[in-house]
Amino acid sequence: MLALGCELDPDQEVVRTRLEDYFLRPPSHAPCTACGTVMTVHIVERMASVIPAFNSSMRSDRNTYVGKRFVHVKNPYLDSMDEDILYHLDLGTKTHNLPAMFGDVKFVCVGRSPNRMKAFALFMHKELGLEEAEEDIKDICAGTDRYCMYKTGPTFSFSQRHGMGIPSISVMLHELIKLLHHAQCCDVTIIRIGTSGGIGIAPGTVVITDTAVDSFFKPRFEQVILDNIVTRSTELHKELSEELFNCSKEIPNFRTLIGHTMCTYDFYEGQGRLDGALCSFSREKKLAYLKRAYKAGVRNIEMESTVLAAMCGLCGLKAAVVCVTLLDRLDCDQINLPHDVLLEYQQWPQLLISNFITRRLGLCD
Ligand SMILES: O=P(O)(O)O[C@H]1O[C@H](CO)[C@@H](O)[C@H]1O
Ligand SMILES: O=c1cc[nH]c(=O)[nH]1
Predict the structure, then answer these.
(1) What CATH number belongs to 21-52+65-360?
(2) Which residues, including other chains, have CB under 8 Å from residue 126's CB and lie 6 or more apart?
């Protein structure tokens, strides 16, 4: 028996899931030889000969690996739990048949506004030409008022409902990733669609994020765990962002670019606004900061991307962030566009993602 270490790297994880997939041998549990925590033990001695082959094929081309890529959770305790209640989603492993309900999910779109995410679900329903009646597309999380979730074919549309920012999306991501894991989903792509403040670009431009950065323009997300600060990488999937960019070229009058996205903990002081209830810096300092951000490659600012990039990266999910800009922060702080223009702008990321999904599914001309 071989006990894989607690901190599996993605290559090992793919070997693990491929082996389970091929030989249908359920994992058991044992203490980790290194640290003693209970962890999943995989019976691999019978198939030792296949490991090198898997390893070499994956190492040579990790990002374009075409086999099944399962969602993996990095928690040695999870598999030993008798039941997992996804409290904020009002779902659970004992109360719901998650593989039957969600096993076919390939694309997850996350966003904040419930209206926006429901509109996206309905839009995808039409684009995918699904037979089910529109009225049957119901909020799967209706039993909780925290989040909304709609499923249309292989597409999930998730909304943070009223929450904004890292804490809200982080709770959702923990449960969403566990849901995908319990449902045995594979080859899942996750995309955040939202709004943002642009830097030095015209409002209405869609920014496809290559790297999410913090307020110091660093590609990192700092998570406080117990009383430690754990720093995680926030690189997003390069090929995916390029694929999205190529899709955008097919859409007439679509203004888009690939750039860094700065993720902050606050909309006002955290984004250098002069119009919050508190402001302790000058206009000059604000502009100097935003210009430094621009020079560092930042093209827009929002409030969720770093944690999404960090968590999805660790769990083997290909992730992207696509946000439209509502203003140019070098010009102003207030979002003063007419309501109908704002609504129109918010549709641009949806249009791009639906184009991407239909293309991936081979439904485009
Ligand atoms: O349009 P959404 O997805 O809400 O994203 C952006 O808008 C909110 C601030 O107005 C923050 O959540 C920020 O990330
Ligand atoms: O300026 C903006 C606009 C939308 N969302 C943000 O986080 N900032």
Answers:
(1) 3.40.50.1580
(2) none
